[in-house]
Amino acid sequence: MKEKHPKFMNKSLLLAMLMSLLAIILSPLANANAQEDTPIKIGVLQHVEHEALNDAQQGFIDRMNEEYGDRIEWDIQNASGNMASLQSIAEKLARESDVLYAIATPAAQALAAVETEKPIFFSAVAAPLQAGLVDTMEEPGRNLTGTTNLGPIEDHVELLIKNFPDAKNIGILYNSSEVNAQHQVDLAVEAMEARDLTPVLGTITSTNDIQQILSSLIEEIDVLLMVTDNTVDSSIALVGDMAKAAGIPTVGSSDSVVKANGLMTISNSYIDYGVQTAEMAIRYLEEDLNVAEMPVEIGKDFVMIVNEEFAEAIGIDPATLVELD
Question: How many helical (H) and strand (E) elements, i.e. helices and strands, does the chain have?
Fold first, then answer.
């Protein structure tokens, strides 16, 4: 049997080494390409239908689509304020999604109750700590993080005083079972009492209570201070119309709600809240971060919003409404 010449053996060995080296170089590229083609299943749970929450959803979806395009498989659900539906929808989304997006406190609580491993990002949650969603704002300590929509309550009170200096009795309509609303009311009452204003509270448990409670409240107040309350916000058409009919200014709440049927507020855009939360989700996906260590973020650009049509309807020249210094 003829032995192979060493020259040919060296060539064969060199070729094998080159092939191995090429495989090592190309392997990460192949894995990266495969990863880029892997679908991302995102489940979205919105508590109820109203302008602010719709805007947060749109901002999140647009930014995620901009980043990942057709890779995302969306499952978008709205519980329409039904707590029983909220829980069953949360269970389904948790089973079938890779990443979860909760819009409003009840949606975040429902997802947190059924999913402790997959990442849950939230928007429109005014009091994440008080709602039991995070251990601290700086380090959530669990699989939830996102953006808080807690508005500058003290600034809202100052805005009210600056534009309506003669107002003394300030009404707040809210659902006392919404922890996010209760937290804001506590802050507002403290701010008002420190400024010798009298808070007049009207508590509701559902949208069915609004007309009766607000009718009584309007008789006692000079201005209606609005907090971000999902029950009230989902009925802003009624709330705003009743305030207009009585000539009562409304101050506070979200930009979306004021644009729909309120007078004025200082607010971050809820579309921007959605975009900001999407940016957090993108960082998680791209940098392999630990959600439990991602701080809850606040809004970045609070500005005064005035609804000129509402102002004119209650006899106010919009040009006379002024910002805080």
Answer: 12, 12
- Token representation of residue 317: 């020249």
pLDDT in the model for residue 37: 79
Domains by residue range for the chain, with CATH: 40-149+269-294 (3.40.50.2300), 153-267+304-320 (3.40.50.2300)
Q: Which of 267, 214, 216, 219 is nearest to 240 (CA)?
A: 214
Each residue's pLDDT tens digit, 165-189: 999 999 999 999 999 999 999 999 9
Compute the distance between CA of residue 208 and CA of residue 107 in angstroms, rounded to an integer. 21
Contact at 8 Å (CB) between 144 and 114?
A: no
Angle at 95 between CA 91 and CA 99, to 5 degrees: 100
Three-class secondary structure assignment of 124-186: CCCCCCCCCCCCCCCCCCCCEEEEECCCCHHHHHHHHHHHCCCCCEEEEEEECCCHHHHHHHH
Rounded-to-integer distance, Cα 82 and Cα 280, Å: 28
Q: Report the chain's mean pLDDT, rounded to a whole number.
A: 93
